[in-house]
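Any chance you could type out some protein's one-letter sequence along with its backbone structure tokens so I can compare the two?
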Amino acid sequence: RLQAEIVERRAAEVELQQARHELERRVAERTVELAHSEERARLAAEAGDIGTWDWDLTTGMVTRSPECLALFDHALDQAPTVDAFLGCLHPDDRERVQQETEEALSSGKWRSEFRAVLPDGTIRWLDCRGSVLYEKISGELGPVRFIGTITNITDRIEAAEIMQASLVEKETLLREIHHRVKNNLQTLLALLQMEKRQVRDPALITRFDAMRSRIQVMAGIHENLYTSDGLSAVNMGKQMTSLCEGLRQLGSGLNRIEIIPDTEDLFCSIDVAVPLGVLANEIITNAVKHAFPDRSGRVEVSLRHRGQDVLFSVRDNGIGDAGKAGGGIGKQLITALAGQLRAEISVDVQAGTLVQVRLPAEDFKRRSTKPVVSPAVPLDQYCYSV
């Protein structure tokens, strides 16, 4: 029995020794892997100009990598404290960063962008990110270390500032362009008015008024653009309301014809706004001029989003012939503009006249987007031949 126990103990010792050798082998392999991993991380940090830092919350001391120290131009080489770090920050950022750091100790995560003032007075923008490590102290889990990375983002910030300045400059130039186009159109309107005063033929006077009305629509759209917050979209709901207010006075009596707009804020590009504005001008003008030859009336104008379309409609309670087909330039212009807008037009003359124009909803947005700088569109693009 004693011999059997000895044999069994020797076998157990052999197994234990083998297990110890296996454990030592695995520890050695893992140590090599960790060394390689740390080396790769170090090389990656050097290649990416990324500094690392380690704040021991129990002692208050901060260990910084050479890359981190270089980002501060070695101002922190002999100052391994958080107060020294805060002292290197721009005065306008110091209080904010300190507050964010204190909040990070509670939330466990931190990311901040701030300015550092180097010893020679140079300003450097830095991106700092960190995480809090926790351990049990006296049976309770608490923060013990705060580790993270820091990166130089000065080039990115300066590039963004240059781009923003360029966008502001281009936006200013575009506003000036729209303002000048509007002024030129107003000059053209004045010239037409001067010519009109020399004309005695009622038919020619009517033609002059029609031309002035169409040009005024274009001028109004350019005015809408240069006075709006953005330059990439025209609020056609607002534009239709202004158009109705202007066209109401085309009747023989100022208060005889009531034009009631019912629109929502729908934004579109100037390429859509100009032809749609001229199209609306022609349709509403027809109703005002022809639907009520000898009596008062009402014209209802609507611009609303309807499913897959945007529906523009003009309904009057007149004699019912405002939408009948004819050979005038106005009807030809309506047809040409509808084709340009990819719109479908329907006319119902059962009770008064109802003209409906269905436009692709993809050409409109319900809210204005941020200004988008786009090439200026030549004015001759808005001149239509029929």
In short: Residues 102 and 110 are 10 Å apart (CA to CA).
